[in-house]
Specification:
By secondary structure, this protein is mainly alpha-helical. The protein has a single domain, classed as Orthogonal Bundle (Farnesyl Diphosphate Synthase). It is built from 13 helices and no strands. Helix 3 crosses helix 5. The termini are far apart.
């Protein structure tokens, strides 16, 4: 059996920036739900790095695809701390199972391509990270338009992929960075305070893009400043 600590590790992303950003969600239950969605995306992104050959990665993705099917169809769900969290999100809180399946299919591309072109990465991130984070936003603020989350979520996800060597750096240079930055900055200014924590990682996307190492205190200060001002 997993201990409570194990379950927390399994149902939260290891990414410090995500955890620090989502800490600005006041409601503890909503924060845990948003973290579970982020943990699922992190899991999908890391599959290719944890397997020795594509077939093994495909098996992992298929395991999760079938788990989502079980959740959606009301059947007994194969056990994993994160599958338990997703079961509640889909069955009790109304998140769309199909969005999770689409995210899995999107990330399978990493098994085939290794490094992605910017176009491929944009399509992947929009089908997975942007889609699921906007789903999480409906839990936090059910009647709010979540469109403005697209640019900041996309900016951070692409920066993370670049830092992890998943993005073709020849196609994702300074020009693309500046465009993504401008789009994220413009969108952040329009977000409601309730949804702002889901976009806060964009405040530190530049660090991921450039490889700059900011200390824990510097990360906290930057996120707090962005939360107060809505500016990155």
């Amino acid at each position: 059996m997993s201990s409570p600590t194990d379950i927390d590790i399994e149902t939260e992303p290891r990414d410090d920036i995500l955890r620090l950003s989502y800490a600005f969600i006041d409601d503890e239950a909503l924060r845990a739900q948003a973290l579970a969605v982020a943990a699922f995306l992190e899991l999908l992104r890391e599959v290719p790095q944890k397997v020795s050959e594509p077939l093994l990665g495909d098996i992992r993705y298929t395991w999760w695809y079938e788990a989502i099917d079980e959740i959606a169809e009301g059947r007994k769900v194969r056990y994993h701390p994160l599958s338990v969290a997703l079961e509640a999100l889909i069955r009790q809180h109304g998140l769309e199972a199909e969005r999770f399946r689409e995210a899995i299919d999107a990330y399978r591309l990493l098994l085939e391509e290794g490094r992605l072109s910017l176009k491929q990465a944009l399509e992947l991130v929009d089908a997975a990270d942007v889609s699921l984070i906007r789903q999480a936003a409906t839990l936090i603020s059910p009647h709010t338009d979540t469109t403005a989350l697209t640019a900041p979520v996309r900016f951070y996800a692409l920066a993370l992929m670049r830092a992890q060597g998943l993005l073709n750096v020849d196609e994702a240079g300074d020009t693309e960075y500046r465009h993504l930055y401008r789009e994220a900055r413009r969108a952040l200014k329009t977000l409601s305070p309730k949804l702002l924590p889901l976009a806060l990682p964009a405040a530190l996307a530049t660090d991921r893009w450039t490889g700059h190492r900011r200390g824990p205190l510097g990360q906290r200060f930057k996120l707090f400043w962005t939360f107060l001002t809505g500016r990155i």
